[in-house]
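Feature request, filed as a ticket because there's no other form

It would be nice if the structure record came with a short human-readable summary line next to the tokens. Right now we just get the raw output. Example of a typical job, pasted below so the devs can see what we mean:
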Amino acid sequence: MALVVSTLLSWVPASSFGDQTINQNLAVLDEKVNRLNAQMEDLLVRYQQLQKDSDLIRGELMEFRRAGGVGVSAAELKALEDRIQAVDNARKADRQAIIEQLAKELAGLSSGKPITPVAAGSREHVVAKGDTLSSIAKVYKVTVTDLKKANGLTSDDIKLGQKLTIPK
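Raw output as currently delivered:
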């Protein structure tokens, strides 16, 4: 991980550091890399599940075809083919999301913009599918009230991809 952070840091012009120390920048980059790794792992798991689903459906379709269509209507075969296409499309969309996320993160790191660390004494969390304020608070061992206060939230509504500051 340190090698990845060092490599990423080499892409950021020294002029972007300003008054920040190298250690602060490394910590920010390390956090961004960890967050990106978590997002990538989630997308890869989804991609692998879609691949399994696609393989299963293709197997069912092959069985139907081997059976010579006995007991299977043309509408059922068409529905199965449509399911295969939908799974393939979802898999392609996930693959594209992985590529776009990587490109976005790398572009942000190499853009020469100053690196802005999260406020001292706090961390940042990017909302993933299935996250709730309660589950996030539990993971970081903070209260939902503190989490809402740190982010200026008036309700429990959060959105996928939203960045939340995690108070210490």
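Something like this underneath would help us a lot:
The CA atoms of residues 53 and 87 lie 7 Å apart.
Residues 1-114 form one domain.
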